[in-house]
Amino acid sequence: MGINLSNLTKISGLTKPTGYSASEIKLALSSRQMKPSEVLEQCIANIDLYEKHVGAWASINTDSARELARELDDKNPSGALFGVPFGIKDNIDAFDMPTEYGTDMYLGYRPSRDAACVAGMRASNGIALGKTICTEFAHRHPGKTANPWNIEHTPGGSSSGSAAAVASGMVPIAIGTQTTGSVIRPAAYCGVIGYKPSYGDFNISGVLANTPSFDTLGFFANCVDDLVLVRKALLDESIPELKKLSLKGARVAIATKPFWEEACTSSQQMIEEAASVLKDAGAKVFALDDQGVFENLSEWNIEISGYEFARTLAHERRLAFHKLSEILRNGRMADGFRVAFSSYQAAKKNLELLRIKFDEVLKGVDFVICPSAQSAAPKGLESTGSADFNMAWTSLHCPVISLPVAQEKDTALPLGLQVVGTRYSDDRLIKFAEAVFKCLTN
Amino acid sequence: MGINLSNLTKISGLTKPTGYSASEIKLALSSRQMKPSEVLEQCIANIDLYEKHVGAWASINTDSARELARELDDKNPSGALFGVPFGIKDNIDAFDMPTEYGTDMYLGYRPSRDAACVAGMRASNGIALGKTICTEFAHRHPGKTANPWNIEHTPGGSSSGSAAAVASGMVPIAIGTQTTGSVIRPAAYCGVIGYKPSYGDFNISGVLANTPSFDTLGFFANCVDDLVLVRKALLDESIPELKKLSLKGARVAIATKPFWEEACTSSQQMIEEAASVLKDAGAKVFALDDQGVFENLSEWNIEISGYEFARTLAHERRLAFHKLSEILRNGRMADGFRVAFSSYQAAKKNLELLRIKFDEVLKGVDFVICPSAQSAAPKGLESTGSADFNMAWTSLHCPVISLPVAQEKDTALPLGLQVVGTRYSDDRLIKFAEAVFKCLTN
To answer: Which of A234, A311, A358, A430 is most worth mutating to test chain B (most B CB atoms within 10 A of its CB)?
Structure first.
């Protein structure tokens, strides 16, 4: 415990670059210590160094990024993301880049418009550097990306490239999406901050749908402060700056359900040690009493995900069924066609009430902690790992932040700890996450 | 009252064709009285006759529709929409047609994939005939479409072309979308059946977002049975067929709030006469006690619509602000930027609880009736009329069916009556709507 990942330098033969955070860039630019072009060149230098090993990118728009950076060089900083290069998961539209959804079917396809989030980041003077690899239609069939900490291990998915790009200092911020565990799991595997906001806070128009009832925009970053910047950029410039929060008296619930027994020894140990450190900092730490919320959750999640996903991909099913991966065809899509509309609808109604019940459950809790994934990134690139530890929070529409607070002894791979809050309390959760991160890594 | 619109023939110099319903087509095809090609040629004949007056279409794909129809000619009928030509509102993607969103900005733009609903209708062997005119980005700035009953009057919007195409027998079914009143109002103005399902029943991936919290797919048809066919096609083949339902003992609530006093005399009279006819049929008719649900509803609706719409169109705002219509720029978009994120979030939370409260309110009610719009279609094409009578039900996520049950004496224009049900009870509402329609028009 207590490992500050930014201090790590050489892991498994691959040097992990420090990588600027957007907040550091903001400071350096506003004090004129750096220019946007210099920031961008650092990112491009890291791409030149690591991309051949990591494979984080579907396409990179170096020329237009350089052009925009040069324009910004001469301007006074304005906008929450002024001069901050960012990556865009390749299931999200950008008008000036290809959008290929992690499949060969749409090679070179150009959408007509930016997704709301891309246009919003650009309107805040962020610099769109390229599209990052996502798994096939943001489901489970992997792309080319490897884990920057050990390229024989998966980076996780479906936001594989976004996590890996931030982890290797190629961009300080990358956009991802989460339908089950597609932000939090790769963030944990790649040792970066991952943020899955409350469902609906961020506009997802222009993002390829997977399961509309759960699809949520997410972000990868190198520091918690950066989450405030993306909220300012996309939600409201008046979102408050991060202020220090004491953990004294904070009510911290450890979620040992629904999948605790699946967590590896290192993950369980991480939580136990984190609990002890947080207690020392004055927090009240106790086991989460879920009051039955988790009982049927995964069943309902599977029905809804299957039903919606099968219909979202109706076009591909109709015209290119043989081009879909087997895991997609025979997994979620096949599951989806076994679900009757009446069961789907019942599951949605049940979940709506469960979310309100969970608001009540969390009334005596400031935040929940649990492992971000079962273990560190599994070996091999053929699977992106399990989302079991993420399913509940995504279904419940809760905000989640994954913090890279530990490193597995044997493999030297990072472990993530999830901090989970009540729906629609993201600004408060971000403050707690910052305090937890400082407390556990200093 | 009691006017069966299909008996009307000559209105204001424009002959209103009878137009097949999908259910009639199904019967004719399964009994081999007609072939799919013959059905299609009837639609094309009506387009040839009326399109120059009505302007319902953004693009028509006659050649590929004919080719598909010829293929179906030799096949045994299968699929809920076998051989049924349909129109697609031009804010919905189709891979083999342009998608222009009702604006010059995207002339000729070709999406890569079908929207989920288009692919689903095609998978049920429906024949996509073309894209129908929608207002600019499905907001208020009108397209070229005129009302088939009197071309000096608006067809309503934003699904202007879909309503007009069905009303003039160019297609038996057309897809639309509703964010406030964009299906129900044009259905009423154009004298056809309009169906705005429960929010979330139908997958809207591949549909241009307007206000994701309210955006709902909708349908226009010539008979209530056809709504069952589209539900079979897109939700589940096992959706039950329509069975006769008696209105004896049915609990019918008349909504005189929130906007009753805005309804024109004819609309008020229509509801009063409908109440009397339904009573004669054995229904219990009473005033809806909304228990305060309508109190802050429109305020919250405006905050959410504005906030989300402004962000959905972030790309156009950034790169083509001057090309947006004034009503869009200075209306909903400007409204949206005045809404703080905290107010937006509060409005969403309030509405979530209000929907659950409204479920309770409707426990003693089988369905609600009220006018579909303030009046018949207003004169002039520069405005698409008011959605005030639709805002509440859309915000509450309730299913709504507009029935063309009356005709204004002075103008000879149709009037629509809305039948509203509890969220997620669409199949039941469709049965009641059929009974109400028969009762009021026979």
So the answer is: A311
- Tokens standing for residue A47: 């791409």
The sign of the CA dihedral A47, A49, A51, A52 is positive
From CA B392, how far away is CA A52, in angstroms rounded? 55
Q: What is the CATH number of domain A5-244?
A: 3.90.1300.10
Query: Please, where in chain A does CATH 3.90.1300.10 lie?
Result: 5-244
Count of all residues that appear for chain B in the document: 442
What distance in Å separates the CA atoms of residue A223 and residue A226, rounded to the nearest whole number? 6
Which ranges in chain B are annotated with CATH 3.90.1300.10? 5-246
Fold of B5-246: Amidase signature (AS) enzymes (3.90.1300)
* Tokens representing residue A23 in the block: 């907040």
Q: Which chain A residues have a beta carbon less than 8 Å from that of B201?
A: 345
d(CA A83, CA A72): 7
Q: Which residues, at least 6 apart from A253, have a Cβ–Cβ distance to it below 8 Å?
A: A285, A286, A287, A288, A289, A362, A365, A367, A368, A369
Cα gap B38→B19, rounded to integer Å: 13
B318 in A contact zone (CB under 8 Å): yes
Running DSSP on this structure, what letter comes out for residue A32?
T
Strands A216-221 and B251-254: unpaired
| Residue ranges of B 202-261 with Cβ closer than 8 A to chain A | 203-206, 208-209, 212-213, 234-236, 238-239
Put simply, the answer to whether A205 touches B205 (Cβ < 8 Å) is: no
- Distance separating the N- and C-terminal Cα atoms of chain A: 10
What is the pLDDT tens value at each position of chain A, 442 positions in all? 333 333 333 333 334 556 789 999 999 999 999 999 999 999 999 999 999 999 999 999 999 999 999 999 999 999 999 999 999 999 999 999 999 999 999 999 999 999 999 999 999 999 999 999 999 999 999 999 999 999 999 999 999 999 999 999 999 999 999 999 999 999 999 999 999 999 999 999 999 999 999 999 999 999 999 999 999 999 999 898 888 889 999 999 999 888 889 999 999 999 999 999 999 999 999 999 999 999 999 999 999 999 999 999 999 999 999 999 999 999 889 989 999 999 999 999 999 999 999 999 999 999 999 999 999 999 999 999 999 999 999 999 999 999 999 988 888 899 999 999 999 999 999 999 999 999 998 7
In A74-182, alpha helices (H): 116-123, 160-167
Residues of chain A found within 8 Å of residue B349, distances taken between Cβ atoms: 424
Looking at the complex, does the CB of residue B397 fall below 8 Å from at least one CB of chain A?
A: no
